[in-house]
Task: structure prediction
Amino acid sequence: MEDIMDLKGRSLLTLKDYKAEEIDYLINLAAELKAKKKQGILGDSLKGKNIALIFEKPSTRTRCAFTVGCIDEGGHPEYLGKDDIQLGHKESIEDTARVLGRMFDGIQFRGYSQETVEKLAQYSKVPVWNGLTDTYHPTQILADLLTLKEQFGTLKGLKLVYVGDGRNNISNSLMIGTSKLGINYTILAPKSLWPNQELIETCKQYAKESGSWIEISDSLDGVEGADAIYTDVWCSMGEEALAAERIAILKPYQVNPALIEKTKKENTILLHCLPAVKGNEVTEEVFERFADVIFDEAENRMHTIKAVMVATIGK
Result:
């Protein structure tokens, strides 16, 4: 890229820590790395680099994206499942972080507590990337933003409507990413599932600076004019006990043909971070109608994660 931005040594714990132009840089770098890979051109930016991949929660896209992205650039990824290391059990998070920081050049963490990923970054002294916590999922949102840019050619001024559990890690992170980059963001959810007020106020400030707006409503009419609708599973990992109650209150927010119709637009797309529970948050018919975009979005996890590694620890 012509304008190399120096993100060396930076962790990615939440998109709150990144300026709009830095997020934009990562999206553009990912697009460039994706184009090169399609031409069979791989890099050696991570040659000699070792990456620890810590997983408290299982994963398909995040694990595969970090593994393939790392190997594509000449690095070595080491998978560390919850039964492989003593993280927070026989050994404190702080001590595990200090050990891993002396052996690895970067650490990915996917698990429950945001505090854990923050401690890993504080004590390891190497870049730490948040592959998902209960609060935030920043690497997913980078993939979503790249997908929107591929679909519409631009990001500023788009209207993205998130439908479902408005206070989960995806909605939280989307609100941060969209408000920083000038995308208008609407959450349609029952009031009991609206996001934390403090985060709303923070993101409204970002939106003010970028010239966009945030709207939170329990009315499905808010979907009108959406360039993209985004949905996610109604029960996040660890919330399985709440399934029946969640299904009951979210059933009206299912993404189905009637909801798509309410956009009053011809070119609205659907995004889903996967895995999907078809018949709950989205009907099979609507999912399949937009499957090509959804699986582009899944593939883009790899290109954006690769960009994050290259930008923060690459040569």
Notes: The chain has a mean pLDDT of 96. DSSP finds eleven helices and nine strands in the chain. The first strand starts at residue 50 and ends at 55.
